[in-house]
Structure formats: structure tokens, C-alpha cells
Amino acid sequence: MSNPYEIAFKRSIEDPDGFWAEAAQNCHWYKKWDKVLDDSNKPFYRWFTGGEINTCYNALDFHIEQGRGEQAALIYDSPVTDTIQTFTYTELRDLVARFAGVLKGLGVEKGDRVLIYMPMIPQAVIAMLACARIGAVHSVVFGGFAANELATRINDAKPRVIASASCGIEVKKVIAYKPLLDEAIEMSDAGARPEKCVIFQRPMTEATMVEGRDVDWEAAMAEAQPADCVPVKATDPLYILYTSGTTGQPKGVVRDNGGHVVALKWTMKAIYNVDPGDVYWAASDVGWVVGHSYIVYGPLFQGCTTILFEGKPVGTPDAGVFWRVISQHKVNCLFTAPTAFRAIKREDPNGDLIKDYDLSCFRALFLAGERLDPDTLKWAQSKLGVPVIDHWWQTETGWAICANCLGLHQFPIKEGSPTKPVPGWNLFVVDPDSNPVKAGEIGALVVKLPLPPGSLPTLWNNDERFVESYLREFPGYYKTADAGFIDEDGYVFVMARTDDIINVAGHRLSTGAMEEVLADHPDVAECAVLGVEDKLKGQVPVGFLVLNAGVTRSHDEIIAEVIQMVRSRIGPVASFKTATVVKRLPKTRSGKILRGTIQKIADNKEYKVPATIDDPATLGEMQEALEKIGYAKARK
Q: pTM of the entire structure?
């Protein structure tokens, strides 16, 4: 007998209209759609054409009508400011309606863009939902982004208004946002600059206001008239989220309103197995896609309580903060990045701090954003005693391509696999000529078109680049730019970005597979393996190891052991002979290791410091480490 996952998956591929129409019945529509899937303008597929909807209504007003007005909608937990604040659905709706009134009062209309440049504070969520309420298109830029990066996004989106705050807080330091914002506006094109900026003044830093342009958040809120929800077309854009492009020009991923509401609401039960009234926590940032999909929108569409956390997994105040938040707010499901757990494991290898908290409410841990190494998986499973689910998705897709769908059928977990494609995602592994490869063979992971609702329909004002970036290389498919394989049981293994498959003397090898071996060493907290240029073999792998807190053994001994481990498990063909211990790895603020940048340093190529980097000093440390092992030449 087929299980519910297999039934759902088969129907989603064979009868997408019926499958998604059924899911859409659970959402509020002002006007029902004329067509579920509109394929009249391939490859620009559209979902629910002719339908009218409002994202904010589905997130807030809908639940108040269902009697959830007094339930907590948003809990703001900020260990960096020692603040906890709870907003009911009614309270949040009233604040959102009022800020929507502020925007309308500043001339913002349906289709106008509003850029949001804020830290993890309730005002960021309020601003996003307020834009959705009046049909404005929001573009959230990670708070504290460099001025030149912010300027490129202003130039592309041409926002009528920017909402910002005086500062953000990074563990022990305060970062003033307003000077960065002022500089970015100065650097941007005259025709792209905002008419007004709404600034929320935080007590730690008071921003200097520009007369005639800047508006005080609190003063504007006090005078504003609340605004009602405006019906928009299902195919109208809800937001633009910029993802770095290889050319240096950011790609503005567009999300539409209708498909987004339908898909995300469906995922809350199907993938995460949470019901209305449950407490859901995505420990991410609203500047990233995870923050959009699973801090702000998904949990509120489902009538859950969502947690907005302003802090870090370690250092605010210690490696037990996640357990404190779960215990205090009765969190049922946590979604974060593997790097957060590696940081916790490094500080508290035995999980001693977990014992200080009652986690009986906690049902499942979901991890995504980078590959989940088996060592971190095993540690989390043994210490927490709940399902630890790896799932794989991208900014562009908006929700998971592959997952162990807990609300449909829980499959046995295989280390290194995000399990199977989620219903809606017709996933294949193909060779360079777009031919499917055999089970177990590595190739490019691609999704057969059309993509399901909630994924990107195009790029902002750039259909050509959308086709060029994602559709041209494998005709009829969406290119994920990830490499991997599907095994005999249908489990998907995402090995690496396609550019992380290295060619060692004619052998195609996955650096990800080597990282899994290194991560198994008991003294290694975190690691990365990169292919660096080699005159004889084309490329050779080099390993970088971050050790657990308290390890005092000789680095040379540990390096010799990991080299032997790779030799034993992958074989001499891997040619893995060089590794070095580093204090930390260069990462983005969302926790992804900047492998491409490290590779450029190793190969002595010019590189640009990525806008998303968490701490630029880590690149200097990496340069020194590479020089010691004879790869990067000293820079002048």
C-alpha cells in the first residue's frame, strides 16, 4: 500500500492543478483563480492566474476571524538587549495596519517598492507585513550590509520609501545603521533614491535625521490612520530578495502572492508537521529567505506562534541559549543551520547545558542552508532525542526541494541525505547533455519545469537573466547548480555545488564527501575541503580544521589522523595529503562557509570581499594559514 507521501508526490506531478487547487482551498481568496497553472507563456509559468488574494490578510486577519485573536502570533526574544515581548494576533494586526497607514501617508501605493534595512526587531516584521497589506513590494536587505551593496539594491529596486533603524547589535558591539544608509543613498543613482526614510530609534544609538526626508517611526505611528488589506492579483509580486550574482550585480529573486501563500501554508503541516497554535522557531534572520518563509510568513499563514530571536547560538550569553528559548517559549519545532549546531557542539561538546532545561515540548529539529555532516547529525540526535531532519532548498525555491516530510510520512534517516523530493518538485540527476544518469551516479541536480507554486517566477525586471541563470543550460529544467545523486531507494544526496566537484588527475571527486570524513574526527568541530590548483593533477584537495574547545593535542597528530581517515574511506585516489588547523572559517552571516573566496585566496586570484561576510578578519587568517602550507603567496 502506498504511504501518504507517495500518494501526494504522484498526484503533485501527474495532476498539479488538482493537487494545488486543493491546497489553495485552505487560504483566503477575494476572487477565485481562473486557472491553477497558466503555461501559456513558457518558460514563464504562473500559478492561480485571475485569482485575487492578500498575503497579510492570510497571515493575520484570517486567524483573528477564526478566533485566534488573543493567541500569541510573535514572540520577540532578544538576549542582546535582555528583552522579551509577546504580540497577539490582534496586537500584531493593529500595529501592521497602522504602519501600512504610515506608508500610505508617505505616498506608497500598490506595486511601489519599500526597502527594509533592519535588525531582528519586531518593527522589521511589522514593515514586511504592512507592505503586503497594501500591495507594496518589500525588499529586505540584511541589516548592517555595506553601503555599496545597499546602493546596488536601491538602484535595482528603486524604492519609494526605506524603513530602517538606528542600529543593530552583534553580540557585544553596536552597529550604527543610519550612517551606512545615508552613504548608500548618496552613492545610489539620483532617479532610484527614496522620497522618505522611516527610522526606528533604538535606545542604544540615536540616528541623526535628514530634514525633509527622514521620518521618526514612533511619531509617524502615533499619527497614522490604520489601513485595510488591499486585494492583489495572485501573480503580483510580494517581495524581491537579492541573492549575490557571479557578475557582482545582485539577482532580485521575485516571489508572487498567490502561489507563495498556498505553498508555504501547505509546507507547515506537510513538511514540519505543525498545527495552528503550535510554536515554531526559525533561528535565522529576516534578511535571508529562511526569515521570509519561516519566521514571518509560513508560521503566520498556519496560525502558529513564531519566534523572532535577536541573538547568536553561542555568546548570548552561552551555548545553552537555544535550549533556554525552546524551554521558555514551549517551542515545538526549530529550524536553523547546521553551522549553529556545530558552534554549540564546539562550545559544549557533551551537551551539558541541555540538562538545565525542560525540552519536553520539543518535537523536531530541521536543518538547512548547507550540507549536514553526519557527525553533527549524530550529535543532535543523541543529545536531543527528537527527529533531526536535513532538508535542502535555495533562496530561489522559497521552500524545500527535498525533505523528510514529517506531516506525510517519516522515512528512516540516511546520513548525508535530505531524504526525498517534496511533492511538487520533479527532481532529476542529469549529465551535461541533460540525459538522466543511473541511480547512484553523480550529476547535476535539476527540476523539471514547471516549478511548483511559491518558487521564483522570474528575476526583478530581468527575464533574460532569469532564463540565462537558471533555464538555459538544461532545456526544460531548472538548474539548481548543485551536484549529487539519487540512490536506489529514491533518497537524494546533495554532494556539493557543481563547482565543488573537483577534478583530481581525471577523477571527479566531491569535496563534500571528504568533509564528512574529516567531521567524523572526535577533535574536529568544523571543517572545509577545497580543491586548489595543482600543476600536475589539475586540482588537489586541501582541508581546513577548526578544533573543539579544550583540545590540547598536537595539531600535526590530528592532521595525520584525518589524512589517514580520508585515505581509508575514500582511497588514495582522493590525493588528500594537506590539511591545516585554523581558528575559524570565513562565513556568511547565515553561516555558509565562503568556499569560493577561500579557493581564490589559495589560487592567488583576485577576489572581492563578499557583502554577506560575517567577519572580514577571517579572510586574513585564512591567507596566513594558506601561506604556511605553501599555497597562497603573500600579498603586498
A: 0.85
